[in-house]
Write a structure and sequence with these properties.
By secondary structure, the chain is an alpha+beta fold. It has 6 helices and 3 strands; from the N terminus they run ββααααβαα. Strands 1-2-3 form a 3-stranded antiparallel beta sheet. This is Mechanosensory protein 2-like protein 2. Belongs to the band 7/mec-2 family.
């Protein structure tokens, strides 16, 4: 007969009774770094953390030899299997969803062991150095292309503005002469100079 007892004073008959101490607090386990081949054939190294606790001590002691080791090994294998079906983009952009699905899958199995999976967290995803360099070069090229596009759009808008201004000045000659005088006055003011005109400008 297997019985569970809470904290307090217990009486055990020598050579008859046997006991196991079960910690009901949350247990943290750092899953060793796993080298995983993704669906798009890229090798990544993934670090994860497992949080679990014992919710049925009698089942945990009687149904599995070492519930802690069994839970840890199962989580490591499940991590490799799930991430092997994901692309690198999915792993990088949605790690929380992957971790949640993995914790639900492991929890379904460990229920029969009296173990409750509280959560699984993916700590880090490390890429090969060559891939990191390639991604950095690609990102730099994308930024340069985007800046060139923005500059080209600015030049196009500026050319439209210059063309419109030229059309207005062409229809109003006095506007062109006033603009000319304004530029001269501005230049003289900035350089603190005096400009004299030998010929008079006639306004129509």
């Amino acid at each position: 007969m297997i019985l569970s007892a809470g904290p307090g004073l217990l009486f055990i008959l020598p050579c008859v009774d046997d006991y196991s101490i079960v910690d009901l607090r949350t247990i943290t386990y750092d899953i060793p770094p796993q080298e995983i081949l993704t669906k798009d054939s890229i090798t990544v190294t993934v670090d994860a953390v497992l949080y679990f606790r014992i919710w049925l001590p009698t089942i945990a002691v009687s149904n599995v030899h070492d519930y802690c080791q069994a839970t840890q090994l199962l989580t490591s294998v499940t991590l490799r299997n799930i991430l092997g079906t994901k692309s690198l983009s999915e792993i990088l952009h949605d790690p929380r969803k992957i971790a949640y699905n993995m914790s639900c899958l492991v929890d379904e199995i460990t229920k029969s062991w009296g173990v409750k999976i509280e959560r699984v967290e993916i700590k880090d995803v490390r890429l090969p150095d060559s891939l990191q360099r390639s991604m950095a070069i690609e990102a730099e090229a994308t930024r340069e292309a985007r800046s060139k596009i923005i500059a080209a759009e600015g030049d196009l808008k500026s050319s439209f503005g210059i063309k419109e201004a030229a059309n207005i000045l062409a229809t109003e000659p006095i506007s062109l002469q006033l603009r000319y005088m304004q530029n001269i006055a501005l230049n003289a003011f900035e350089k603190n100079t005096l400009i004299q005109f030998q010929n008079l400008i006639e306004f129509d």
